[in-house]
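I had to read the description of the data format several times before I understood it. For illustration, here is how one protein appears when written out as sequence plus structure tokens:
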Amino acid sequence: MAAALLHCCVLPLSLALLLITIGCVSGEGNEVNNERQSELRTDKTGRELNQAADSSPVQYALGENHAMGGRELALFPEVGPITTGWSERLLGSLYSILHFWNFPLDIIRSPSQEQDEATGHGASTPEDHNILFVLGDSPFDAGNNLYLNESNYPVASYPYGYTYFSNATGRVCDGRILPDFIAEYANLPLIPPSLQPGGDFYYGANFASSGAAVLDSDGSSGLHVLNLKGQVIQFKELVAKWNETLGADTTRQVLAKAVYLFSFGGNDYHNYYEKFYDEDSSPTPLEQEQFVKYIVGNTTDALIEMYELGARKIAFQNVGPMGCLPECKTQFPKFNGSCIPDLLSMPTLSNKELNKTLTDLAERLEGFKFSIFDYFIALMDRIENPSEYGFVYGSTECYSDGNLCEYPSAYVFFDEGHTTQCANEQLAKLFWEGDLSVTSPYNMKQLFEESKG
């Protein structure tokens, strides 16, 4: 009784002291931020959206996009990670004070803690919930290249990740990537990169690697990458571990219910075309067709290998409009800033061949189901008509040559080859529950529902 009375008396006093402390800290933070904001306006050389007071389309886009999760520029990377917001500081300090006074902390546990207890590792197995495996290239990489390249990796530092995370995570984006949103929609946590030491792969694994290709690359990018073959090998290693811990039968059931998300081909077509361009020539239509079949054929071999291990539900983001990416327009200047025809024709051929191949596999392989998201059309539409989707800039990147825009949410592209968090969220929603005009013959939501069988 005395202990309970002490808690009741001490808690209000602790909260009062806490609010005073938060107010002091917040005040100091505001003064510092105001000083940095002033410096930003005078010293920043990057593009800014608020230079023109009468930019009504810009202001409209900012309002629309910020409602979808955009955030202003985090100031001055040299000061370290973005300062935690007042609400997070309040909760953290409250937790510390209550812990000091030995308050029963179970009454303020977070929803995630409750979920961990409800579906925790000790209470369930991977067969009891959704599982997501991710394989692909840079748009899907959740950080594997950090472990492959360590300090020699440009996206390992600010401003990558700052819109959502407190620091760079290895995602080639200002914030979250498409697989992050898919995981959220499927009621899953962020799926960890497969190379993460001590990673928890209870809900799946992300094997994607920036620069990855279907074919083994020649390393000309200067980065160590996991190509499709390497990612499949890692998947097989995970399966072997599950066989040991869960048993072969249970593992196969888990793999059959899991959904497998893919993004491959863009780097193959880029590398193939680059060799022709360097010789001042272009691949003929026949050469393009043959190369496309070679890429899709090798992809098919990998899918069949995974199918034999138990994979059944396949989701593909098809190859995007490579020829209209800012980086391609810069790299191949003889087109004077126009889209590169061969880097549009090969992805178009590839997407048709992929659809044909997956349809054939679904007819031949028992239980095989697939989803294709028409990334080419969805991204091209945003490049050509950005204002229809709440963007201001469709073909100009936010971050270029060390200059960072103030509002990534106004841009389709964050850097010269990768979309912003806001664009990723829009695209993920189409992949998750889009109709047959953009995602077919199933969308990802339906694949997960099929997984519950």
Observations:
- The domain at 126-452 is CATH 3.40.50.1110 (Rossmann fold).
- The chain has two domains: 1-23+84-112, 126-452.
